[in-house]
């Protein structure tokens, strides 16, 4: 089965502040998104990677990738105005014979290769899989500033990526969302609307999404730990 990874990296990263989108901030001299690409390039189950970018970022990212000795194709495609539009554009570019599509946030560079392999294996069986971690905080349902109720923590997971799907399921989900004008916060939310069961695998606290300045010190610590593991 052919497996394609899509990494949407066309966002502006406004919560990080500054003029550089968060996915292009440097970690140990390398843009965050390149650290992310390396993980999927190292995953044996992934055949090729589609990196979706703003048109103005393609040349710079292309130069960075030229310095990366990847053993599989990393293809650059132009993204859209929103994450959903960006993934839809990349999805339209994937080969017709692709069986599985894996979508991963550009700013989650600490996904473990073993987790990628695990989620691909599960997606082959069930068709739709996400990573999630339990909430350690009490979750309240609110309306404006009023609490409507407390949601039991045992019924809550915090969704992560990668999320993996049979290509036919994901394409159908995106087509229906486009036809009905639905906007989701992740790919799973589109698939759920089809009535398809989505399996949850345990994610990792290390699989952080770098979105704000306070995330950077922890990211630098994780990078240092990964480098220490490789050298030992």
Give a quick rundown of the structure.
The protein has 7 helices and 11 strands.
How would you describe the overall organization of this protein?
- A seven-stranded mixed beta sheet has the order 5-4-1-6-10-7-11, sandwiched between helices.
- The model has no long low-confidence stretch (mean pLDDT 94).
- The protein is α/β, with parallel strands linked by helices.
- The chain is built from seven helices and eleven strands.
- It is globular and about 50 Å long.
- The chain has one domain (2-216): Spore Coat Polysaccharide Biosynthesis Protein SpsA, Chain A.
- The chain has helices spanning 32-42, 58-66, 83-93, 113-126, 167-180, 187-192, 216-231, and strands at 2-9, 26-27, 30-31, 48-53, 74-78, 98-103, 128-134, 139-143, 146-151, 157-166, 199-202.
- The longest helix has 16 residues, at 216-231.
């Amino acid at each position: 089965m052919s497996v394609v990874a899509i990494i949407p990296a066309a966002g502006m990263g406004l919560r990080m502040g500054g003029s550089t989108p968060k996915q292009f901030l440097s970690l140990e001299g390398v843009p965050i998104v390149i650290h992310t690409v390396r993980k999927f390039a190292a995953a044996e189950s992934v055949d090729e990677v589609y990196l979706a970018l703003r048109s103005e970022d393609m040349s710079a990212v292309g130069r960075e990738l030229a310095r990366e000795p990847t053993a599989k194709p990393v293809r650059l495609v132009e993204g859209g105005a929103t994450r959903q539009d960006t993934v839809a554009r990349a999805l339209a570019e994937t080969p017709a014979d692709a069986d599985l599509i894996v979508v991963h946030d550009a700013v989650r560079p600490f996904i473990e290769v073993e987790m990628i392999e695990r989620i691909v294996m599960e997606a082959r069986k069930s068709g739709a899989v996400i990573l999630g971690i339990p909430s350690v905080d009490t979750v309240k349902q609110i309306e404006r500033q009023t609490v409507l109720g407390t949601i039991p923590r045992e019924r809550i997971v915090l969704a992560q990526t990668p999320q993996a799907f049979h290509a036919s399921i994901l394409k159908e989900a995106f087509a229906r969302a486009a036809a009905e004008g639905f906007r989701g916060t992740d790919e799973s939310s589109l698939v759920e609307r089809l009535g398809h069961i989505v399996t949850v695998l345990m994610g990792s606290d290390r699989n952080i999404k770098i979105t704000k300045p306070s995330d950077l010190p922890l990211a630098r610590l994780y990078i240092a730990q990964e480098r220490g593991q490789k050298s030992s």
